[in-house]
Amino acid sequence: MTYDEFNDFCGALPATTHVVQWGGAQVWKVGGKVFAIGGWGKNDVASYAFKVTAIAYEILKEQPGLRPAPYLASRGMTWIQHFAKPGLPDSELKEYLRLSHRIVSRGLSKKKQTELGLR
């Protein structure tokens, strides 16, 4: 997945906003809370970070091309970074991005969810 494809996909999810911050990272939010980050890679391979469930975190952190997301996971958060090949196929990466959006959306107050049309 390219950064353009990543941005198009995240932008199509409900009630999202996009900012560029943290040294040029493509940061996607729902309700003001981050659910996906594109960037942070130190080479030419695209890098994506996203929130996952505790079970998915335990499984994914051991997969080739995936790791606990720097900074986020070190603070006890269940975030995975797709940073190298083979990583995830685009179809699976999209499913995890959808899941991350859902996890973060559900963590918003019911009032905020209603305001954003997420309920």
Characteristics:
119 residues; alpha+beta; six-stranded antiparallel β-sheet; globular
Describe the structure.
The chain has 119 residues and is α+β, with helices and mostly antiparallel strands. The protein has one domain: Aspartate Aminotransferase, domain 1, CATH 3.90.1150. It is built from four helices and six strands; from the N terminus they run H-E-E-E-E-H-E-E-H-H. It has helices spanning 3-12, 54-60, 90-106, 110-115, and strands at residues 16-21, 25-30, 33-38, 48-51, 66-68, 79-82. The protein has a six-stranded antiparallel β-sheet. The radius of gyration is 14 Å and the shape is globular. The mean pLDDT is 93.
Structural class: alpha+beta
Question: Number of DSSP strands?
Answer: 6
Q: How large is the count of helical segments?
A: 4
Order of helices and strands: HEEEEHEEHH
The Rg value, from CA coordinates, equals: 14 Å
Would you tell me which CATH topology applies? Aspartate Aminotransferase, domain 1
Uncertain spans: none
CATH architecture: Alpha-Beta Complex
- In total, how many domains does the architecture comprise? 1
What can be said about the biggest beta sheet? 6 strands, antiparallel
Mean pLDDT: 93
Strand order of the largest sheet: 1-2-3-4-6-5
